[in-house]
Amino acid sequence: MAEVDVVRTAGELRAVVGGLVRRARVTDDLPAAQAAVLGYLDRDGPMTTSELAGVQRVRHQSMSRTVAQLVAQGLAGQRPHPGDRRKTLIELSAAGREVLEARRGRRVDWLAEAIATELSPAEQVSLARAIELLARLAAH
């Protein structure tokens, strides 16, 4: 079996995955910062603005603006923190969930179409097998 240059492979994988993500974003109609916050709220549940700023690695002020925009659009709501009434929890609204699911659906549809039209059946099988490997890398 041939030896693999893991540094080169890592660089190529980063570039390809980055390009794939950027291409999928073409279907987006929501700013990336807002979409990221909705995604965190969907996956992790209600969070404070400070917690959101921490996971996004942005300043609290920047996150406050993003949260205010989402609340103004009806995509997120606010409620008092049950453990500390001085804090406010930001939560995904029903409208926010609909926007997020539609966004994800557009991305999946685009990617499914690309897989079906650009890859042969054998390549589709190889790609399906590679997903397990990519998932292991993502969990590392």
Give a nutshell description of this structure.
It is built from six helices and two strands, in the order ααααββαα. It has helices at residues 6-25, 32-44, 49-56, 60-72, 94-118, 121-139; strands at residues 76-80, 88-92.
Report on the structure:
- The chain is built from six helices and two strands, in the order ααααββαα.
- The chain is mainly alpha-helical and 140 residues long.
- A two-stranded antiparallel sheet has the order 1-2.
- Helix 3 crosses helix 4.
- The radius of gyration is 19 Å and the shape is elongated.
Provide the fold topology.
Elements: H1 6-25, H2 32-44, H3 49-56, H4 60-72, E1 76-80, E2 88-92, H5 94-118, H6 121-139
Antiparallel strand pairs: 1-2
Helix pairs in contact: 3-4
Oligomer: single chain
Distance between the termini: 25 Å
Strand order in space, largest sheet: 1-2
Largest sheet: 2 strands, antiparallel
The structure class reads mainly alpha
Strand % is: 5-15%
Helix content: over 70%
Count of DSSP-assigned helices = 6
Radius of gyration over all CA atoms, rounded: 19 Å
SSE pattern, N- to C-terminal: HHHHEEHH
DSSP, total strands: 2
Low-confidence stretches: none
The averaged pLDDT comes out at 93
Q: In one word, what is the shape? A: elongated
